[in-house]
Write a structure and sequence with these properties.
The complex is a heterodimer of chains A (336) and B (431).
Chain A lengths: L1 H38 L6 H21 L10 H30 L3 H23 L12 E3 L1 H8 L7 E2 H23 L1 H11 L1 H6 L4 H26 L4 H18 L4 H19 L3 H7 L18 H15 L11
Antiparallel strand pairs in A: 1-2
Helix pairs in contact in A: 1-6, 1-9, 1-10, 1-11, 1-12, 2-3, 2-4, 2-9, 2-10, 3-4, 3-9, 6-7, 6-9, 7-9, 10-11, 10-13, 11-13
Chain B lengths: L2 H20 L2 H28 L6 H16 L4 H31 L2 H32 L16 H22 L4 H21 L1 H4 L15 H6 L1 H9 L4 H33 L1 H11 L1 H6 L4 H27 L9 H15 L4 H29 L8 H8 L4 H16 L9
Helix pairs in contact in B: 1-2, 1-16, 2-11, 2-14, 2-15, 2-16, 3-6, 3-7, 3-14, 4-5, 6-14, 11-12, 15-16, 15-18, 16-18
Amino acid sequence: MDFLNAIVLFCNFVLVPATTYGAQLALGALGITVIYRILRFANFAHSELMSWGAMLTLFMTWYLQSVGIHAGPLPTALLALPVGILGAIAMALTTERTVYRFYRKQRASSITFAIVSVGVMFVMAGLTRFMIGPGEQVMADGQRFLIKAVEFKRMTGLDEGLAIKTTQVITIAAAIAMAGFLFWFLYRTRSGKAMRAFSDNEDLALLSGINPDRIVAIAWILAAILATLSGTLYGLDKSYKPFVFMQLLLPIFASAIVGGIGQPVGAILGGFVIAYSEVLLTYAYRKFVTYLAPGDWKPEGLLQLLSTDYKFAISFIILVIVLLIRPTGIIRGKLL
Amino acid sequence: MKQKDLLYFAIFLIFLIGVGWLQSWNVAFGILNMCLISAIMALGVNIQWGYAGLFNAGIMGFTALGGLSAVLVSAKPVSEAWAAGGLGIIGSLVILGMTVSAILYVRMKIAPPLRTWSIIVVILPGYWLFQGFYSSAVEQIETINPALTGYLGGLGLPIITAWLIGGLVAAGGAWLIGRISLGLRADYLAIATLGISEIIIAIIKYEEWLTRGVKNVTGLPRPVPYEVNLIETQWLVNLAESLSANPVAMASLLVKFCYLMLFLGMLAILMWLSERALKSPWGRMMRAIRDNREAASAMGKDVTGRHLQTFVLGCAVCGIAGAMLVTLDGQLVPGSYTPLRYTFLIWVMVILGGSGNNWGSVLGGCIIWFVWIQAEPLGYALVEAVTFPFEEGYWLKGHLIENAAQTRLILMGGILLVVMRFAPKGLIPER
């Protein structure tokens, strides 16, 4: 019994939240990776694109709610998602046309691109905060829990409850679906193959008649879809707040690099590595160990490796360690 | 400096005088003081980016290190806290240092198959010992008068000395970080430094025994007289009378003027040193390395070593600016350090001013800080004008005016994008 309690406790506070967070990070990192593969630069504006897409989704959600359309037990934001995605695609293509294309034709260095993306980040952050304001907004509605802790306790007769939020299930399902779609697109469709060819050898791809503008546009569309999805899922799971996305930028970069930059599988892997380390290192194991330990023995301290204050710092520490020991990432990507 | 460059500075001064006339001289001096600090930060970044082509996105961390030193140097020591937990903290830091050196030793001496395991064998007891000393010491320190102190305090030295020490601390941090991350290529370096600066801020924010964290250390001693004391002096009252000005405003202006003189002095020293460095054989070598690493390396220049050198120097300048900023504010507010304001805004300054030119960085620092401050009222005016057709009390109008201050982010991004596109060399190009 104690053993089962320990497992449930672990699932409730570590496994479920970390998996959800990992899925959000993985989607964000996939967006960074797609842009990196095609345009070869670290896009500092990606997290603001997430914020932008999520904001538009939120606006549409409010509109739908005001005219009385709901998605039943699911959050209304899912119905509003297409609008957010279209808005993000429009934004991404506008930046490509007005900003990045000039440098692309010049074949500017990756560092120039990165600095320019900082400018885009400023503009997008300003636009988002101007339109929605810097405050915190609640995105989720509908049925909040799939399984409530109390019900779980009653059903199983255990002392520990397991609560699963609807948004957590949606996040994981959506991440799996999106990743599946991305891999299908990259490896099975003509456009996806053209993209991979372009990223492997640009000159050879141009020689075989691949239109670079089209490839780049597709890359931005994919990045915008991924960004909106991850931004909205993060907003649903927690809440929408413009400032948070600036903080998310680093864990997302860390996920992309830890997994191996330019590798889609690596981005997903990296997202989960970062998320699990953040949660595992800041979780207090005291109760968990108490359940597992024989008799009534209780450990003294909280058995917490790092204070929760350092949750965000962990991803940077992992990033720095990976950069030092294996700069190519877990799955060998292209070295920047 | 050419005539055109002087013209830019003259235009900036005219705008500043305009603010003095239209708004108030107090505001104008306040802006100018911050402009000078920004100029020094931009100078530090220019040393790294303009001389050597290093993309440091961790400026925020080094400014914060400078600010931290200002607190640790100038705040009054809390002797009760030292008595309660000082030994424990020192002990835990010694253990931490020993563990790290043991890990480095093991990494050097033991061959791969056993290496990972022996490192773990070193880490576990080291961590356990460290945690034991550290947590009890921290608890004891933080319980001593938490409303007012709850931290170890500083050395109680004059805060001006912190400018030098802040520079040294930032340089030390930069040396450590540079050793780790300078081997990386440009955009990796940016991401790594961005991450490291966040770690530094996290430490300053959450290690309350050291910095009081988000409770902020306030009321740091000033290097200049206080307004209340100035008002009581006879000569100020006489001066105010002869100019028929308000003595209170006069005192506040005088304090700002004293700061201005200090900052100008510091900027002049740093500017002189930077110009000397840039025009010396060392400066030419740095630019040669920046423009063609391989060729410079073939000429026998130690590229990594030189990069580390510029990285350390630039960060030291940023650290000095950080200490000056805390001196001006009289307090350290760890929560206010955000990458947008302390890293990327400085980048806009350097790019606008002209990377590779020290005068350009100073100009960029002045202009961008001026615009950053003045964009707020400008944004309000703009949004007011745009929403004029809407009637009063319409929700959208109120909402937009409420968020009008955010338009300055759009303006900053716009400036960066326009400069990068149409004048990539900046206002005062490298010569």
